[in-house]
């Protein structure tokens, strides 16, 4: 393993004395006196036979030894027995390389956890690497018991999506949706383009149709260990980002010369001039076409319920259909054939229809053509809105990304939670089986890339598919972040995205990022990671921010969300002088 000229290799028996001396020098860096260091000497001494027995790894730069680490014990739990960096190299990323290598080795040999007895001075380093304290912090000089999780090679979908390397990301959200007839766009679609920064786990270049603070990308890159990311913020009239790129020959050439996968938010004719592969058919972005596919596949999936759907040709015909259903006591779902985030979807009860108010409000926001009336599937709030995401590789194989639980208010998508145990096992299995079958059908028709199937559940817990999205989605961001955090911090994270969290006050971008940094520190203390995902809406008339939270337990995730919501709300007190606001300053 070689990074920036530093190679991680196995330790050699003849290096035992030199490695022992390095460990003692590294310990002395923290200012311990001679008596304390003498007491530590035996513990820090390596013997020639330890090189294999303790899995000794050395950080080597051109023959110069910069650091040493050991992985002691056997699966399922091992110990990071030693991790020391020569003082001149401390703070230059050597410890990070050794730590990542040891966690990867722990995963390779089958460990599910790694324990650490850390010097109290090293505790902040291990916390930053994603480890967790297993007990209260002791006084200086004592050891801190910590726990870490092995890092695996990454799921197959990452390799299918990006080749397991870096990628170019295009935030062409508005451009994608504008290509469909009568498509209704959600409010704030321009801000939503920020999510394209997370189109793949490791971006090299990102192009967005709006201006973002450089400090935002730098902060995210630091947390996710992206390294340098090249960001271009360009003016794209009407959201036509790909055409705006093509109108800039230098940027177009820069993207093509990068030799990296280009990941647009969604495929368009203009975007296809920047990507490779044949043009893609996007027919199943139509909610009517996806419904026909659901009905065709459902007989082979008895756990799936497909709601009835009919097309109406005009608003007058819509009114008649709704009146007939209301007279029968039926609640209806009215959809535009194309739309995003629930922007063209309305749920109308018989009372709404008979009063006329709900019908008139829906009619004003719906397109005049491509109207669908669908059976309303009643269900419980728990596990109400599952989702499935997958990737169809260039060779046509379908790779499962995962399932998650969406947060939907009314019909508006707000965010998602993904990770172990988020959905019951039987619901997960049913959604994966059906979502995979949808992917195989799309593959046969020639589609390649990311896709998503959204569901609602009925009172018996059966999933009812509602639409297919042939593009990146809000849940895609959560899955990408989960994959990246699992890679750099080990283990299997729970990730929750919250795309539209209200702010108690309007803030300029630098003040917003400072506010979020404070919240991130408090989240870390609770064992959670906070990442800003949409930082550009804080000066809107109704200001908000998008964030992602990651943790290793549902409780930590819930506590972090409560903390962030409270902190955002407390911003309003900054202008009234309340004590609660001062707490969050």
Tell me the layout of helices and strands.
Elements: E1 2-3, E2 6-10, H1 16-28, H2 34-40, H3 50-53, E3 57-61, E4 64-74, E5 77-85, H4 94-108, E6 113-119, H5 123-128, E7 132-133, E8 143-148, H6 156-162, E9 167-170, H7 173-178, H8 189-192, E10 203-208, H9 214-224, E11 230-233, H10 241-246, H11 249-257, E12 262-264, H12 287-297, E13 309-312, H13 315-327, E14 332-336, E15 345-348, H14 350-355, H15 357-365, E16 371-375, E17 386-392, E18 398-409, E19 412-418, H16 425-444, E20 449-457, E21 463-469, H17 474-489, E22 494-502, H18 509-525, E23 529-534, E24 544-551, H19 554-570, H20 579-583
Parallel strand pairs: 5-6, 9-10, 9-12, 10-11
Antiparallel strand pairs: 1-2, 2-3, 3-4, 4-5, 6-8, 7-8, 13-16, 14-15, 14-16, 17-18, 17-20, 18-19, 19-22, 20-21, 22-24, 23-24
How would you characterize the overall build of this protein?
Helices cover 35% and strands 25% of the residues. It contains 20 helices and 24 strands. Strands 1-2-3-4-5-6-8-7 form an 8-stranded mixed β-sheet. A hairpin with an 8-residue loop joins strand 14 (332-336) and strand 15 (345-348). The chain is elongated, with a radius of gyration of 27 Å. The relative contact order is 0.09. The model is unreliable at 578-585 (pLDDT under 50).
